Amino acid sequence: MKAERVSTFQAAEELQIGVESVRYLMEQERLPIGMVIRKPKSKKATYIIYRGLLDQELARIAGGGQRKW
């Protein structure tokens, strides 16, 4: 069974922040919703966001948790 993945655009919409903020926070390891893969000597990155981790973060925020970012 494959884990469901979410686009950066969808994650940004659900978190109510900008797409660039999602990317930046993931690169800084301050938004634990997936992983960032960057090839050596490359400016481009791939952002892998998992539905389960995004839902956990949304539930934590909805439950009164502070945004870590």
Description:
The structure is a single chain. The chain is α+β, with helices and mostly antiparallel strands and about 70 residues long. It has one domain (about 5-60). Helices cover about 40% and strands about 20% of the residues. The chain has three helices and three strands. It has helices spanning about 10-15, 20-25, 50-60, and strands at about 5, 35-40, 45-50. Helix 1 crosses helix 2 (about 20-25). It starts with a strand and ends in a 7-residue tail after the last helix.
Task: Summarize this structure as a short list of keywords or feature phrases.
alpha+beta, 42% helix, 3 helices, 69 residues, globular, three-stranded antiparallel β-sheet
> Which geometry do the CA atoms define?
globular
Averaged pLDDT = 92
Task: Report the β-strand fraction as a percent range.
Answer: 15-25%
Instruction: Give Rg in angstroms.
Output: 12 Å
Percentage of helical residues?
Answer: 40-55%
Low-pLDDT ranges:
none
Order of helices and strands: EHHEEH
Record the strand order, biggest sheet: 1-3-2
Q: What is the SS-derived class?
A: alpha+beta
Total beta-strand segments: 3
Largest sheet: 3 strands, antiparallel
What's the helix count?
Answer: 3
* Integer tally of domains: 1
For the termini, the CA-CA separation is: 32 Å
